[in-house]
Specification:
single chain; alpha+beta; Metallo-beta-lactamase, Chain A; Thrombin, subunit H; 2 domains; 7-stranded mixed beta sheet; about 35% strand; globular
């Protein structure tokens, strides 16, 4: 069972270097069940990335897929009019979602953003959107080899969380949920019970959450609490705030891991592979920015996947304003914290902290290649200036 992240930002998309690593597109996930059936969750601007993925383009075989819509706020549906597979009649998408607040039906709610004068074409051209199913909270139903359950979350105008159960594991999608409502708190813990992968709304810091009560979102700290009480195996922090830069999201992950080590931050291109009881993470389409190509000796300190310390010397291949790619004879754990130190002391004298976002094989040397995003923006800029 595969889970791929195409959009991870909440509220509205961002496009700047400060949010480049985790990504600025609004929510969109792709789930592939063990038999190969594809389920899309939400339809934010991340849909554009999905349309470019293997198996979704115009040269692919006809697509028969299911679509779960948590609710109808713009950041969760604004990508639908820009998703080319919806305009091809040979494809078929079956939608499942909450009956919209105020009535009118699911199809009408999705069509609203395409009415004149907001969009030049209407819903009638989305010929692949062939079925719309309004889901009652608490419902369970089958989609191919998966069982899906929908539970109401605490969010203005309503929202559904989804639990997808297959023979390879359980994925729970619980975004746009505000803690503090007894029924809502109980519902999200029920939904997340012993899930292999819990994807949870972590838009705010705990302090910001106290300031924005009633906005319908949560924090990394509450995500840790839910994962602990529900005994979820892996936690993915999701729905990042537009004003949270990469360094901020990285701090959220670091603080969450102090209480629950199996915590990750959702990033565009992140893929989780479930085969219970294990969940493996990898980056399938790394986020890269403008690079300075170079080759400098470095030392990388961190930890391996088994928890043992790692201290290896290698060389830096290229550099961006927010990270680097190094080649070393050892492999740190994906998403673990590392320190990178240049061995040429006239360049920089301090270690640059960061976290591992990519582990692959360098094609030139055959050694492990490690992508690292820096946590301290000032250190990066000082390093670049010295180059």
């Amino acid at each position: 069972m595969l889970v791929r992240f195409h959009g991870v930002r909440g509220s509205n998309p961002t496009c700047d270097v400060r949010t480049w690593h985790y990504g600025g597109n609004t929510p969109c996930l792709e789930v592939e069940t063990p038999v190969g059936h594809r389920i899309i969750i939400d339809g934010g601007t991340g849909l554009r990335s999905l349309s470019h993925a293997p198996g979704w383009g115009p040269d692919a075989t006809p697509i028969h897929a299911s679509w779960l819509v948590s609710h109808y706020h713009w950041d969760h549906i604004q990508g639908l009019p820009f998703f080319p597979p919806l305009y091809e009649s040979r494809n078929r998408f079956e939608f499942y979602g909450l009956g919209p607040d105020g009535g009118g039906g699911m199809k009408a709610a999705l069509q609203g953003q395409m009415l004149r004068p907001y969009f030049p074409v209407d819903m009638s051209l989305l010929t692949a959107a062939q079925a719309f199913n309004e889901v009652e909270p608490g419902s369970r139903w089958r989609i191919e080899d998966a069982t899906v359950e929908a539970v109401p979350l605490h969010h203005p105008q309503g929202c559904l969380g989804f639990r997808i159960e297959t023979a390879h594991g359980v994925v729970v999608y619980a975004t746009d949920n505000e803690p503090g409502d007894p029924k809502g708190d109980e519902a999200v813990r029920y939904l997340a019970h012993e899930a292999d992968l819990l994807i949870y709304d972590a838009q705010y810091s705990p302090a910001m959450l106290r300031q924005r009560q009633g906005w319908g979102h949560s924090s990394w700290l509450e995500g840790v609490a839910v994962a602990k009480s529900a005994r979820a195996r892996s936690l993915v922090l999701f729905h990042h705030d537009p004003d949270s830069d990469d360094a901020t999201v990285g701090r959220f992950v670091q603080m969450a891991r102090e209480q629950r080590p199996e915590t990750w931050a959702a990033a565009e291109g992140l893929q989780a592979t479930l085969r219970a009881p294990t969940v493996a993470f990898e980056t399938t389409s790394p986020r890269v920015g403008p690079r300075v190509t170079t080759r400098l000796p470095v030392r990388v300190r961190g930890r391996r996947a088994d928890g043992s310390p790692m201290d290896a010397e290698g060389f830096l291949v290229n550099l961006t304003l927010t990270g680097t790619y190094v080649v070393v004879p050892d492999t740190p754990e994906l998403s673990s914290e590392v320190e990178v130190t240049l061995l040429e002391t006239d360049q920089v004298s301090t270690a640059m902290p960061g976290h591992v976002v990519r582990v692959d094989t360098d094609p030139e040397t055959g050694l492990p290649g490690v992508g690292i995003v820096f946590r301290v923006e000032d250190e990066v800029r000082r390093f670049v200036n010295k180059r």
